[in-house]
Structures are given as C-alpha cells and as structure tokens.
Amino acid sequence: MEPISAALLGAIVTGSGGDDGPAAWGALRALVRRTSRRCGTAGDAALTALEQAPHDPAKAEALSQVLAARAHMDAEFATALTDWLHTWGAKAAPPVRTSRTPPGVRRPPR
Q1: Is 46 exposed, middle or buried (0-12, 13-18, 19+ CB in 10 A)?
Q2: pTM for the complete prediction?
Q3: I need a labelling partner for 19 at 20 to 30 A (CA). Which of 54, 85, 95, 99 fits?
Q4: Residue 16, Cα to own-chain centre: how many angstroms?
C-alpha cells in the first residue's frame, strides 16, 4: 500500500480538509488506536504528536511513515487503512488550487 500523504493528514488535522475533516480524523484516530496482536497501538504516539502540532509537516510525515510501516506488518490494519482512505481520502482532501485558467474561460482585463 502507498503511504497516505502527509499533505492529506495535515489537511485533515488542521481542518482545511473541509466539513468531512473532523469525521475523517476521528475515524483515523479510532483505527490507529485499535490494538493489533502484531503491532499493539503503533502509530498512537505519532497521531498524538500531530494533534498537538497540527501545522508541523514533519509530524504529518512521521505519521504517514508509521501508518505505512504498520500496514506493511499487519494485513488486517492495511485493509482497514485502505478502506479508510477510500472512504475519507477524497472527501477530506484539501481543495486543489491552480493558477491556470480553464480552457474556454477568459480572464478579465487588468
């Protein structure tokens, strides 16, 4: 499984992921805190660290890496994390901003 992007994790925890962000974060928190026989609650410390410093990209990257490692070691967690990503990834992703004008749209004169 591909790691969950640090940008997505950061958007969700900071609230810039839109209205679904809090629900997505709550679902991820519940998933990470679910104890596994193989990994215990691996990821809980990284999750808490990001909650305490939500604008720190290094904390978001650390959580991304811990989630990927846990998913690699625990197939059940990997399946649940993939389900979480399919359910919440697009809903809670930050809006994409571009400076390009879409085809057929004219910019107003300056």
Answers
A1: buried
A2: 0.77
A3: 99
A4: 12
DSSP the chain: -PPPPHHHHHHHHHTTT-TTHHHHHHHHHHHHHS-BTTTBTTTHHHHHHHHHSTT-HHHHHHHHHHHHHHHHH-HHHHHHHHHHHHHHHHHHSPPP--SSPPTT-PPPP-
Instruction: Quote the CA–CA distance of 90 and 107 in Å, as a whole number.
Output: 29
Rounded to 10 degrees, the C-alpha dihedral 29/7/3/30 comes to 10
Helix axes 6-14, 21-33, angle to 10 degrees: 110
Contact criterion met (CB below 8 Å) for 11 and 17? yes
Chain position carrying tokens 């026989």: 37
Locate 43 and state its tokens.
């990821």
pLDDT value of position 20: 82
